[in-house]
Write a structure and sequence with these properties.
The complex is a heterotetramer, with 2 copies of chain A and 2 copies of chain C.
Chain A (H helix, E strand, L loop, with lengths): L9 H10 L9 E5 L17 E5 L3 E7 L17 E9 L2 H9 L5 E4 L3 E3 L4 E2 L15 H7 L2 E5 L11 E2 L14 E3 L3 E6 L2 E7 L5 H6 L5 E9 L6
Parallel strand pairs in A: 1-2, 1-5, 5-8, 6-9, 8-10, 12-13
Antiparallel strand pairs in A: 2-3, 3-4, 6-7, 10-11, 11-12
Helix pairs in contact in A: 2-3
Chain C lengths: L9 H4 L8 E4 L9 H10 L4 E4 L10 H6 L3 E6 L8 H8 L4 E4 L2 H13 L3 E4 L13 E4 L2 E6 L4 E12 L4 E2 L8 H7 E12 L18 E4 L6 H9 L3
Parallel strand pairs in C: 1-2, 1-8, 2-3, 3-4, 8-10, 10-11
Antiparallel strand pairs in C: 5-7, 6-7, 8-9
Helix pairs in contact in C: 5-6
Classes of the chains: A alpha/beta, C alpha/beta.
Chain lengths: 231, 231, 237, 237
Amino acid sequence: MTPLITPLAREQMAWRVAQDIPHNAPGGTYVNLGIGMPELVANHLPDDADIMFHCENGILGMGPVARRGEEDFDLITAGKKPVTVVPGAAFFDSTDSFAMIRGGHIDIAVLGAFQISRTGDLANWSTGDNTVIPAVGGAMDLAQGAKRVFVITNHQSRDGAPKIVETCTYPLTGRGVVSTVFTDLAVIDVTPAGLMVREIVDGLGLADLQAKTGAPLTAAPDCRTLARPQN
Amino acid sequence: MTPLITPLAREQMAWRVAQDIPHNAPGGTYVNLGIGMPELVANHLPDDADIMFHCENGILGMGPVARRGEEDFDLITAGKKPVTVVPGAAFFDSTDSFAMIRGGHIDIAVLGAFQISRTGDLANWSTGDNTVIPAVGGAMDLAQGAKRVFVITNHQSRDGAPKIVETCTYPLTGRGVVSTVFTDLAVIDVTPAGLMVREIVDGLGLADLQAKTGAPLTAAPDCRTLARPQN
Amino acid sequence: MTIDKRVAGLAAAVAGIKDGAVVMVSGFGDAGNPTELLHALIEQGARDLCVINNNAGTGRLGLAALLNAGRVRKVICSFPRSSHSEIFQQLYRDGKVELDVVPQGTLAERIRAGGAGIGGFFTPTSAGTPLAEGKETRIIDGTEHVLEHPIHADVALIKADKADHLGNLTYRLAARNFAPAMCMAADLTIVQAASIVAPGGIDAEHVVTPGIFVDRIVHVPDPISEAEILRDEEAGL
Amino acid sequence: MTIDKRVAGLAAAVAGIKDGAVVMVSGFGDAGNPTELLHALIEQGARDLCVINNNAGTGRLGLAALLNAGRVRKVICSFPRSSHSEIFQQLYRDGKVELDVVPQGTLAERIRAGGAGIGGFFTPTSAGTPLAEGKETRIIDGTEHVLEHPIHADVALIKADKADHLGNLTYRLAARNFAPAMCMAADLTIVQAASIVAPGGIDAEHVVTPGIFVDRIVHVPDPISEAEILRDEEAGL
């Protein structure tokens, strides 16, 4: 254990992911935020960012969550939360929505994970526990179809097991799909040369990080301290 | 030759086809009229018929041809003729239009033909002449997808060759797709038991008709005189 | 032109649905659920149904009520484990309902294929996962694809916003979701619409589902929203 | 939100299209042809193009002009033999252009597959005909189906009616035809729109092509209609 390090809190992790989403790319950036922790990412993007949020139930241009009492339950996210839309939003049906996803039109999908393998395999839909009812939703489509898949997850599970592993033991969501893993301890890119640590939390050495990780890590040439919000 | 018989004229053939299109079926009848002689069929349906005309370029609810000077060239048929639409029309894109056709949602397609085989094979897109540029349009989709395919054609080609044949020698449009053939001499259903003559032009015997036909005909039990318009 | 697909009421709308029918049900979460049609189906009595929906019923109304009434033999869906899906979960644990889980995009595309006359398609989604087990696969342009089959239904129960007499439909906001594909893929498409207008009352360029895909329309002017009820309950209203 | 896909003019709209590019062109007959974009492409100079359109150019403008300028190596279409298609016909007879004829519904579906990430699909259309020769076939539910492959393009040239700055599009009447599918299936989708509005200027429920599929928008307020010109010529106007 390394008592001096301070892992990122959930909102800090979401902030960190937000920093890697282009804010003013020509033509904008089209982003799908998965259910759960990925949804927090929206809180950390500037209001004027050139980002269009996609909800797989048929919205492009998702805006802030609807205020209490002003909900319209025909306007919900994939996580079934009432939301609003921005000017220039569009509604469409599920086949068109998944044409966007499967066809490679979504620039970035941010997803949670149970496990990520060295080669970017993702397991995030089932623990293989037969007492839990299986449910996949749009996870496999997003994992396979988005141009880049960002994973936001704690570095280790609650019982201390590494989430980044040599080979996933949980049922896969997609094979070789993850681009970058954002954890409470590091930012790690999945590359043809293996897992490259781009940022590591202040006070933690690569060997310490490796000890919490189930697959070999390499420090990127420009590896630096994991950024966190100022406030 | 049978000098006393009077084959149907083109408009009479179109009228005869129109008689077999349900005018007031519950929920209406969805009809696609192919380019050329099939288009004439619309002239012989009552204005209040419960029929919705489909154009494969993306119209459901085609109305009468546009008046000279009032054409809108964004509103054309598959044959590129400016038309109008009826109240309750809908526009859609080509993928949805062919979903209607391929998915079996069009009740009746009326098509022309070069040849029809005993088993309902249809050849209507190419004579196999290599000096003619091949062009298929929506013919194969309509032939395959419509619930019923009505063929409107002269009984014989200009040079006297039968159009109804044992096996098509021209390149096929679809295999086993024709329901009924409406010619200037007869109405003939394609059935599992073979070609059944339902109506035959006044003065022509079945043997005479058979002599002009390249596949065996059988008279239907209720075979009667070919109907033609009164006026 | 006097085509008129309106029926007198909910009972007439669901008349004739047979035991054992495959029934598509529009909606995603609480958006687009044909709750009144589902309640009419409970009244109607058909049982041993195979239901296709994105979810597997939430709360107590609509699909959850149909499940609770013991009418459903099998559910084909992408996400049966939403919040408030206790009724399905209990039935599943008790072995009283079968479940076929399909990735959401594959589910939508299979329904579209059923409606559009496509005999099957290759998709990269689910390749290498347990949901591809036993399925035909093929490498296309270097990526493994899975062959998926069309889904066709006997009946589709659909919630629309506006309908005209011919069955042209529009949907509110994100309540569109699975409805347009399901309208195409059923032998009998039954629609509850919040408002019904004469032909021409929907701009021909704004029609989302053309009437050719619709068989019966019933007017349900104020459709129930279970999510609204739950919110108000939670707020103590 | 300041996404703005508008470009200054037609030259900017077609900038960067490379020799040898696969170019989808919207339209059916005279409805929906991006004539001004095609003329800009002639000016731009790209050659050795593979063009995908329902037809193969009619009259003298637009695609016919591009063909006449000798820029097209190959045409993939369903119906190259429409009236007034003399330019294509002459080039074809002279062996100066290749032709790939695809049934219209299969063409539309292959383009959609290219845009929607579908690796291939089975269709009954063309089974048993010369257009199925050499293709993989399979009996599905007793009917022979043909395996068809997706079509993807480098560029799509699209005519829309209204666009907003984000690229959301609507189309006039039957001018929609192939445009929505083509917008999805190209790496670079270039749109000429008769009017351009700010975000929110198109009702979100009325959007036909969502902006995610569009890269560049150019304002062409009074697009030319060759059919109108021909009609007026024939009338001696």
